[in-house]
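Data card: per-record layout.
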Amino acid sequence: MLVSPSIISSDLRVLQNQIEECERHGAASFHLDVMDGHFVPNLTMGPDIVKAVRKSTELPLEVHLMIDRPDRYYTKFAESGSDILLIHYESPVNLRGLFNNMKNEGLKYGLVINPGTEFREVSDLLDGTEILLIMSVHPGFSGQKFIDVTDKISEASAFIKDNGLGTKIEVDGGINLETGKKSAKAGADILVSASYIFSGTIKERIGSLKRLTR
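The structure for this 214-residue chain is written out next.
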């Protein structure tokens, strides 16, 4: 299992040390949650934090844009060091147009769906995406309880396989060892974990998730 620690729950006082520790113990990438206080009821990081993390690691950075107008700001995050820009289906923008622009600019992107969004609503948007991020909490705050989206993970996994797509399925929200097992069994490729990893021993927590198999 690929594991992407979410920086939102890290200790910013020792961020570089924690990034290095996550790297040593097998993190595949880092997940950065960008919230604008409009699309979700919280404010977090901007491009400067992405720049700081970029200077601290060569691992891929997934930047999760929980913002109303990703079409206006995605270039700033790309320029700050993002490797993959994750865009919500629920954002009030023309997704096809946005994805075409990103593709033409040579940018990698992924699609995010909230717990209330059915997979069938987005299946025709997957071609060209690096990641389908299935939210297992309502976006906005770390530490929420896992919402069971395993049927949606299984449906997406079967569709991707049947259509020969290269999209990886990522699950984010309330991920710990128990919910990670459920997600992995359903077909997840990547687990995003925030408070579970950073509230315990990083080595043990990342290791426990990495050992999970589909």
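Known properties of this structure: The helical segments are 15-24, 47-56, 70-79, 95-104, 150-162, 177-186, 195-198, 202-210. The mean pLDDT is 94.

See the next section for split statistics.
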